[in-house]
Amino acid sequence: MSRDQNAGRIHSARIDNNTFERVEEFKYLGTTLTNQNSIVEEIKSRLRLGNACYHSVQNLLSSRLLYRNLKITIYRTIILPVVLCGCEIWSLTLREERKLRMFENMVLRRIFGPRRDEVTGEWRRLHNEELNGLYSSPNVVRVIKLRKMRWTEHVARMGEERGVCRVLVGKPEGRRPLGRPRRR
Hints:
- By secondary structure, this protein is mostly helical.
- It is 48% helix and 11% strand.
- It is built from seven helices and six strands.
- It has helices at 40-56, 58-61, 68-83, 94-112, 128-134, 140-157, 163-169; strands at 12-15, 18-21, 25-28, 31-34, 115-116, 123-124.
- A two-stranded antiparallel sheet has the order 1-2. A two-stranded antiparallel sheet has the order 3-4. A two-stranded antiparallel sheet has the order 5-6.
- The longest helix is centred in the middle third of the chain and has 19 residues, at 94-112.
- The chain is elongated, with a radius of gyration of 21 Å.
């Protein structure tokens, strides 16, 4: 894909006997893909959907009648799949990783509740290190990286005639632009 915005307007990609038109962005299985591989808007929309899901079960997560393990199961089965749908194609920057961790910490603070300070006796919010100690599962960024690796292994096991595998191991044509590449 050319980095020059005007270079790809009239070209199309051809794989086997199929011709694909070159577009700026398109929606595939509910995920918006752009030609610049920008996932900022996709992560924002996923976090909005996860936030709506979180607010729908907020009373269950803060209930004292339910066990913590049940609350964590609710988080893993109801909220997390909404946020992580299509995460195998994300290329995360530190900013997106931080947003995802902030969302997860917000949910975990609701699940584990406040902590009473031994010295002063006042209630306080849990720190991130305390949340990591209480939540034994891998954090959301680690889950995304594991899912990406699992998808890559799946594509690598496909035959060479499959289009997805050829895209994964293919070599792009053309020259790289001048200057330092973007950080990813």
